[in-house]
Amino acid sequence: MKERLRILGINTSLYFEPHVMNQRAKQLDKKDVVFIVSLSGETKTPLEAAKIAKLSQACIISITGFSQNSISQLADISLFTFYDRLTYAEMDVSSRIGIHFILNHIFETLTSRCL
User: Fold this and answer.
1) Are 26 and 52 in contact (CB under 8 A)?
2) Which of 25, 28, 74, 115 could cysteine-pair with 58, CB 3.0–4.6 Å?
3) Which of 33, 37, 26 is nearest to 60 (CA)?
4) How many beta carbons lie within 10 A of that of residue 79, not counting itself?
5) What is the CATH architecture assignment of 2-81+93-114?
6) Taking a C-beta distance cutoff of 8 angstroms, is the pair 46, 38 a contact?
7) Nearest in space to 2 (alpha carbons), one of 107, 91, 84
8) CA-to-CA separations, 77 to 7, 24, 28, 82, 103, in angstroms, rounded
9) Can you give the pLDDT at residue 114?
């Protein structure tokens, strides 16, 4: 999604490392939009970044599984997807196809408005 948004001329960044994610969230302001993706909506790293982004007054768009969850409650716009939690050898191997569908729809909508 990051690279697809760049094709449209939208400046984007993607962070996985917790310290960098939180440091960058502190630099946001009300002109910024943040997508926070977490199937459970309770994953520690994106939840902490969401709390910081909220204090920074950035617009938060969350994509989570259907539930009342902490990330969606912090978000200005909450998008939900169906998922069945699936674990194997203590690892989350749940399908992320719903997240991909939502992100693709957002990209297609932006594309039609940018052309």
Assistant:
1) yes
2) 28
3) 33
4) 18
5) 3-Layer(aba) Sandwich (3.40)
6) yes
7) 107
8) 24, 20, 17, 17, 14
9) 79
